Amino acid sequence: MTADATPVHPEETPAPFPRLDRAAIEALVRAGQRLLVQGGMGIHASDGLAGKVARHRGARLVGVGTISAVLKTPEQLRGEIRRARAEAPGGFVGVNLMAAINKDDFEALARVSIEEKVSFLVQGAGISREIVRWCREGGVPFCGIVSSGRLAAMYEKWGADFVVAEGAEAGGHIGDIGHPLPTLVDEVIAATSLPVIAAGGVDAADVSRFLAAGAAGVQMATRFLACSDGDVHPAFKQMHLAKREDDVVIITSCVKGMKARAVRNAFTERLARGEAVPPRSKLWWFGKDGYRGRRGSCIQCLGEGLCKARASGFKESFCITDALLEAAVHGDTEAGLFYTGQSITRIGERDASDLPRAAEILTDLEQRLADEARPSDAGSQARPAAVGAAA
Ligand SMILES: Cc1cc2nc3c(=O)[nH]c(=O)nc-3n(C[C@H](O)[C@H](O)[C@H](O)COP(=O)(O)O)c2cc1C
């Protein structure tokens, strides 16, 4: 990030969000509260959710919203951050930034997040040490997403404030397909003294179990795709209803050939047959200026050498930007790629008109925790969360 970076609209920069650093999380845990983090979802899938989740402050759960920076212009990201701040004054709102995206976008979007002093910055899909430094210099807490205890220990050494342990049941790209969440959480808690958030396939019925295992909170993403007041296309919500195990597939993504979980449809069947799906123009979504001025059909959204489609001259794999935009923004159920988590099969509503608001998901979880704790309130918190518990 260039040293002379100046805010785009300095006069409009309002008061900062509260910091979600290690000390703040440890204080909440000591007070008997845990975090319910809404996972950031790229390519506009989680737009509109962060402020609605961050408004929740219950006796047992504190809502934390995450905005995805991926494939936003700096102006779009700034707008989404300010929207969340207006919806949840004083709430915890962070930004998810994938290290796998191209360097210029990565720097520009990190800069906006730091200027806006979001509650935390979380890094998924790739590892950049630079961003930990930028966060430290900018006074923004940093969180790493980890798929092993070794990675958690590394992030602790680098100065992270907390980690999200993301198991194989997660939606979208999967760090380690062989590492289910229950064993991963134990491994990560043993490897670090940082607060640990459990993510991947978590459903309402699982929350107390991961908290009892010592997690400082849980992260859910898939459940929030199927709520009535997120911005994602209505067809994306519909694709999340009444699904069974055989509606969920693991694909090989163009991003470094990582595995990813998605809803089975005509697009995933094409991939299963080994068809290549090269990029086409993005102008239909980004308007007359194109994507930040680039009008070519491949917008080079990923970092150097990370896109399998581009590396093969578009003869293999597929364009992830097209496929995910078709799903989240266009709602094309045939040509879109609908990322999802394993908990999709546990979404109870069968009709889109029955979907709860994001706030209702939080109040239901809060109520459920209270009900589960009632028989022996002391027993439910028997094992203290991983505050200072490890290493
Ligand atoms: C549609 C979709 C898009 C996602 N995009 C991202 C992303 O851009 N960056 C990231 O770190 N995680 C991403 N994830 C992972 C989620 O943030 C979350 O950690 C994970 O899915 C586990 O929660 P879940 O099992 O409740 O979905 C995505 C998940 C889904 C379903």
Automatic annotation (TrEMBL):
One GO MF term on file is: dioxygenase activity
Give the keywords, sorted. Answer: Dioxygenase, Flavoprotein, FMN, Oxidoreductase
Q: Which CDD domains did the record assign?
A: NPD_like (cd04730)
Tell me yes or no: is Cell membrane among this UniProt entry's keywords. Answer: no
* Alphabetized Gene3D superfamilies for the sequence: Aldolase class I (3.20.20.70)
Which residue ranges does the record annotate as region Disordered?
370-391
Q: What is this protein called?
A: 2-nitropropane dioxygenase NPD
- Species of the source: Anaeromyxobacter dehalogenans (strain ATCC BAA-258 / DSM 21875 / 2CP-1)
Query: What phylogenetic lineage does the species belong to?
Result: Bacteria, Pseudomonadati, Myxococcota, Myxococcia, Myxococcales
